[in-house]
Amino acid sequence: MTQETLSAQLARACCADFYQSDAVRLLVGDSFHPGGERLTRMLAERMRLGPDDRVLDVGCGRGASALLLAREWGCRVVGIDFGERNLEEASRAAVDAGLAERATFRSGEAEALDFADGAFDAVICECVLSTFPDKVTPLQEMRRVLAAKGRLGITDVTLRGDLPEELQGVAGQVACIGGALSREGYAGLLEALDVGSVVAEEHSWAVADMLKELQGKLLLARMASAMGALDLPDAGLTTAQRLLGAAEAQVSAGNLGYGLFVAVAP
After folding, report:
1. Whole-number Å distance between alpha carbons of 20 and 7
2. How many Cβ atoms are within 10 Å of 219's Cβ, its own excluded?
3. Are 68 and 45 a contacting pair, CB within 8 Å?
4. Is residue 24 part of a domain?
5. Coil, strand, or helix at residue 255?
């Protein structure tokens, strides 16, 4: 096993543990990515999804996007994730919503998708690609499982210039910032896949709104912890608040944003 492969696996395991934690769920809810269901609806519209489209959701988390596409677009969605707890909760939510026949969830790795060539009409990947040190391999795998005239949709953190030191390293990687690319960088990767014409849109409001909401929830969490209603380490809350403040400054400076990218074959 190469050092690069080991680093990728460690980063993925770290992300999976982090986003399955109760503290993170308290802060971000079931939809982990900026823009939430609003941006997922935009993505579905740009991809021209329709009833019975076979859709793969790479890095599905607790299944919020997969369930939305099954419920509102009538798609048949398979979600894959590295976190077993996420998958259990996503499957349970599908049953509770009466969508278990249209939304299923399984463990899987984006770098080696366990599906046949051309198995899906569309693939979505929301705020996950930035966490991969190697972005080419998972994108090639997504391309491989797309049927002829398939559609690929990505939403992710965008970055211009260098991050301040406190947002680099593991903290930045887990927060989907450390491995982010510029809008042109993501678009270039999609164009190289030869899926079709690439549409790139800027949606910085999504990350700005999410950071603002997280700051408010962190403040409530600190108050609840001080009153003994929550058992959260004060040092962790302080660190999280500092990192959020640093990220907000980067958004205000125009260095940190959020993009929507769709490749649709003509």
Report:
1. 20
2. 12
3. no
4. yes
5. coil
Q: Is residue 93 part of a domain?
A: yes
Find, among 29, 61, 39, the residue nearest to 261 by Cα.
39
pLDDT beneath 50, residues of the chain: 1-11, 13-21, 23, 26, 28, 170
CA distance 170 to 117: 34
d(CA 138, CA 113): 8
Confirm if 157 and 257 have CB atoms less than 8 A apart.
yes
For residue 240, the surrounding DSSP H or E stretch is helix 234-252
Give the residue from 105, 104, 111, 108 showing the smallest Cα distance to 129.
111
Query: Does the residue 227 lie in any domain?
Result: no
CATH number (domain holding residue 78): 3.40.50.150
CA gap 241, 29 in Å, rounded: 18
* Tokens linked to 266: 């003509």
pLDDT of residue 226: 59
Structure tokens at 62: 């607790």
According to the model, what pLDDT value does residue 19 have? 47
In a domain, 217, yes or no: no
The angle subtended at Cα 261 by Cα 256 and Cα 263, nearest 5°, is 160
Domains of the chain: total: 1
3-state helix, strand, coil in the chain (%, to 5): 50, 20, 30
Q: pLDDT value at position 18? A: 45
- In angstroms, how far is CA 264 from the centroid of its own chain? 20
**DSSP structure class, residue 236:** H
Which residues, in sequence order, are CB contacts of 144 under 8 Å at separation 6+?
113, 117
What is the amino acid identity at position 227? M
C-alpha distance across the termini of the chain, in Å = 40
Q: Which residues pair with 152 in a beta bridge?
A: 123, 263
Q: Which domain holds residue 177?
A: 3-206+254-264
Q: Which pTM does this prediction carry?
A: 0.83
